Amino acid sequence: FSWCGILYPRASEKRVLMSLDGIWQFRAANSTSEGIEYKWYKNRLSKTGATIPMPVPSSYNDITQEKSLREHVGTVWYERHFFVPDSWRQNGQRVWLRFGSVHYSARVWLNGEEVMSHEIGHLPFEAEVTSSLRFGQENRLTLEVDNTLTYTTIPQGWVEEIETIDGVKKVQRYTFDFFNYAGIHRPVVLYTTPAVYIDDITTYTDVVGSKGIIYFNLTYDGLPDSHNEINCRVTVFDSHAKPVGKATKEDKIGSGFIGKIEIDDAHLWWPYLMDPAPGYLYTLEVRITTNKEDMKIEDVYRLPIGIRLITWSNTSLYINNVPVYLRGFGRHEDSDIRGKGLDLALVAKDYNLLKWIGANAYRTSHYPYAEEIMDFADQQGIMIIDECPSVNTEKYSVSLLEKHLSSLTQLIQRDKNRPSVIMWSVANEPRTQLPESADYFRSVVKFVKTRDTTRPVTAALNKWYSIDHAGQFMDIIGFNRYNGWYSDPGEVEVIQPSLEREVENWHQLHNKPVMMLEYGADTMPGLHLDPSYIWSEEYQTDLLSEHFKAFDTLRNKSFFIGEMIWNFADFKTDQSTTRVGGNKKGIFTRERQPKSAAFHVRKRYLQLAHEI
Ligand code: GCB
């Protein structure tokens, strides 16, 4: 798997950024191969047929009034034009094109030439495009995007053909419970780097007494073999931009440098409500310079970092040697009209709601979230269980495993420096009752450990502990259970005994910390039925309360480390008889208004924050 850098594009005195977000031209293909057959990338898209304006970033599904576009299976095409100034063509400067994510797979042409392709949604990809660009002229960027899911995609799905009055229709089927939104979901940027550039930075932080230690490993690229004179300078700035530390000695290793920086009386990165200034970030400024007479180049990149230490035992999870208890949610990237398209107003609102309710953590169920969303978590001290896009795996195979590992490679590469990421989740609800899941998850977890040993690994398991084959490989047991909903709907009295027994059993079986990653009840906002009855606001509150009682008993047993409600907000799903306009288990509506339960949860989460 490729292991080169995918640093978030940041402007600096040596790097320029240009956003390609905005309105693009768009057309859905009638058949999956149509666009390629007729070479739609060769000319303006409008030459080969009608196009419609399509916002980027956004899912395309809910933008028009066409049912056929909402339910489209196969390829769609995007195109936009842009200029790059002549001044960008200087000193061998490089230009890169980067997509924050395109779901599910993409092929990209620049001025008719194919420059990159990528598969697996929710993850960034980029390529250097200097040689395909027209400087001082107009450029044409074309994308083919395919949303088809099969048994060897991550996540899995299958396509069925159904007979309709107009003939045969392709329908995408999948067992996961969120709408398979597609399109260019995250920002598109063009950015420059000098000819010799910082390719990647990996940091790891340690805490010893009041001292914070930052270990770094950076790689550069673009230096011709004949020139190996290159220097690097690494400086740390505090949040007021005051320099507070620099590397005393950087060792050159291959095409990179490693070193460490110590900061006395460091302001550590703490979760929300565990410190008056949670989410404290330093800036690691990396500067490389070549010093040969005929090649004087400098590159500068500034990486935000938090200094914190994660450790874990058979019973607890610690941040900076203090045990933490997670209180939060499973979530989705989802909202009306834009689907999974990044919307910064929504992101800011969601973090304000998370803080209002007193949460300190959430899981990026069931795929990696936008980097802009992760930035908020770093800055505000929200702990993240970072999940790869593997959800409801049911047919295990070698090619699936390869893709699964690729998604983890890309995820870890993207998020490895984020202080908010406290754990990797390698899957949601895989079919772990199947014996073949044992080898599969042994390989998955082993692989993660080759990439990162500083964070624990978990998965959201839902098979019963006695038939599950994957829990044995996890550092922390996470499980999903719908007591009083899918089992015994209406009977909240079953919750306490059943939940307490299950948590005890998971712990006894594996001798590891246990957390609940999903529980909840669908709730129609405005439906009031008392005594409580399923789907009413009263029932959601009752069901959560019974869980809270069990959690309180379990917390006294010291191996129970967290509770996460399913879900933060209502979200769209595929059409089904059990979903009314989508999944309604949110404690906020899809428009982010509180249901009654939200006030109840707020009381508990704030109280927990102050008790611990
Ligand atoms: C689950 C899944 C989640 C669903 C949820 C539900 O177990 O992990 O994706 O949305 O149940 O509401 O059914």
Automatic annotation (TrEMBL):
Keywords: Glycosidase, Hydrolase, Lysosome, Signal. Its EC number is 3.2.1.31. Residues 196-308 form the Glycoside hydrolase family 2 immunoglobulin-like beta-sandwich domain. Residues 18-194 form the Glycosyl hydrolases family 2 sugar binding domain. Inhibited by L-aspartic acid. It catalyses: a beta-D-glucuronoside + H2O = D-glucuronate + an alcohol. Residues 314-608 form the Glycoside hydrolase family 2 catalytic domain. The keyword Signal applies. It is an enzyme of class 3 (hydrolase). Gene3D superfamilies: Galactose-binding domain-like, Glycosidases, Immunoglobulins. Homotetramer. NCBIfam families: PRK10150.1. Plays an important role in the degradation of dermatan and keratan sulfates. Belongs to the glycosyl hydrolase 2 family. PANTHER family: BETA-GLUCURONIDASE. This is Beta-glucuronidase. It comes from Nesidiocoris tenuis.
